Amino acid sequence: MKTRDKIVSAALELFNQKGERNITTNHIAAHIEISPGNLYYHFRNKQEIVREIFALYSGELLERFTPIHEQSESLVLLKHYLDSIFTLMWKYRFFYANLPEILQRDERLHEEYIQVQDKLQGNLKNIMREFVRLELLELEDDEMLSLTTTLHMMASSWLGYQSAMSLKTDITEEVIHRGMLQMISVLKPKATEQGVDQLDLLADGVKAIHA
């Protein structure tokens, strides 16, 4: 692995473990046993590392949330998208847990974030339309924006909400899975009979992980 990639990987690991605000470039350099000067050869400051991580995150996000038109198995399709939401939430949990602060101090990153989220909203609408086509959901066109906005808001703010509501700031996979169950509950009122069955199967699978 190239030094630049090692720096990014180490930063992501440390940010997730201890929180981005608690980690300095010196911590990152020490973690992979290079000098601070070597790190600064690749990145001028910590904010550039955060931007690099965001670029990786946004690339994965948009790739995972492209509708899969050839997929006809509704449960597989639903599981793919819900798993994608929370897999990325876990992988980049530092970003979700401290989102407002990270964005407020970097205008360029904030602009990039908005652009990516706009694309994601469009993809989510297409995914909801695919669920309607597969007779999993019953949605009118004017309901589509409201539902996708709610799901998007939950995905982007779930970890921050959980951190604010707990004296312990540790984010665990169980917290992530509770978010998945919450999103399933939001989808249920708009689900068809077939859709409810599929959602119940998904929810049972998530609960079984921590049984």
Automatic annotation (TrEMBL):
Pfam families: TetR, TetR_N. Gene3D superfamilies: Tetracycline Repressor, domain 2. It comes from the Bacteria. Residues 24-43 bind DNA. InterPro entries: Homeodomain-like_sf, HTH-type_Tx_Regulator, HTH_TetR, TetR. The keyword Lipoprotein does not apply. Transmembrane segments: none annotated. PANTHER family: ACREF/ENVCD OPERON REPRESSOR-RELATED, TRANSCRIPTIONAL REGULATORY PROTEIN. This is TetR/AcrR family transcriptional regulator. It comes from Vibrio olivae. The lineage of its organism: Bacteria, Pseudomonadati, Pseudomonadota, Gammaproteobacteria, Vibrionales.
